[in-house]
Write a structure and sequence with these properties.
alpha+beta, 3 helices, three-stranded antiparallel β-sheet, 9 strands, 179 residues
C-alpha cells in the first residue's frame, strides 16, 4: 500500500520541481539576451521595440519608440500539479478449485491346506482393495488502481509580478524624430 499511494505522490512532487525549473529556464531563455561570448543568457533584458508616430506641433508627425521587456508582453508558463487523486479498489473472490485425483488398487490371493490322515482341510482366500480421492481448489483475485493527476497554470508568482511591474514602469515613449 505504501508504494501504491506513495509513488504517485512522489512523482507529483518531482513533476512540480521539473515544472518550476521549466519556468525558470523559460524566463532565462526568453527574458535575457544571449551573451555572445558564452552562448548563455546574460544580464541584459531582452526587449521588443515598437515604433509609432503621432501628429506633433504644426501637425508634423513625431515618431516615438517604446522598448518593452519581452517578459512583460508574453505569457510566462507556470504550471504546477495541484491535485492527485488515487483510487485503489481490490476485490478478492476466493473459491478453491484445483483438481487432484488419486486411484489406488490392490489385490491378494492365498491358499493353503492342512491334513492328517483322512482329514484334510483346504482354504482359499482372495480379496481386493481400491480407493479414489479427488480435491478441487481455485482462487480468483482482481484489483483496480487509478491515479488521476491534474496540472494547471497557477499564474505568475507575487515576486515575478512585482519585478514585471517595475520593468513596466520603465516603459515610456521616447521621441525618435520630430518633423
Amino acid at each position: 500500500m505504501e508504494d501504491l499511494i506513495g509513488t504517485p505522490l512522489s512523482a507529483a512532487c518531482t513533476a512540480n520541481l521539473r515544472l518550476a525549473q521549466a519556468t525558470a529556464d523559460y524566463i532565462q531563455a526568453v527574458g535575457f539576451q544571449i551573451d555572445d561570448s558564452t552562448g548563455k543568457p546574460g544580464k541584459d533584458i531582452r526587449t521588443a521595440e515598437f515604433r509609432y508616430s503621432i501628429p506633433g506641433a504644426d501637425n508634423k508627425p513625431v515618431e516615438y519608440c517604446i522598448a518593452t521587456p519581452l517578459l512583460a508582453i508574453v505569457p510566462i508558463p507556470s504550471l504546477k500539479v495541484n491535485n492527485v487523486d488515487i483510487s485503489f479498489d481490490m476485490e478478492v473472490r476466493s473459491s478453491e478449485s484445483s483438481k487432484e485425483s488419486t486411484d489406488k488398487q490392490g489385490s491378494f490371493e492365498g491358499s493353503g491346506s492342512v491334513g492328517w490322515g483322512p482329514f484334510k482341510l483346504s482354504v482359499k482366500v482372495a480379496g481386493s482393495v481400491s480407493a479414489h480421492k479427488e480435491n478441487t481448489r481455485s482462487t480468483d483475485k482482481s484489483a483496480k488502481y487509478h491515479v488521476q493527476v491534474t496540472a494547471l497554470d497557477s499564474g505568475i508568482s507575487e515576486g515575478l509580478a512585482r519585478v514585471l511591474d517595475i520593468m513596466n514602469k520603465s516603459v515610456v515613449p521616447v521621441p525618435v524624430t520630430q518633423g
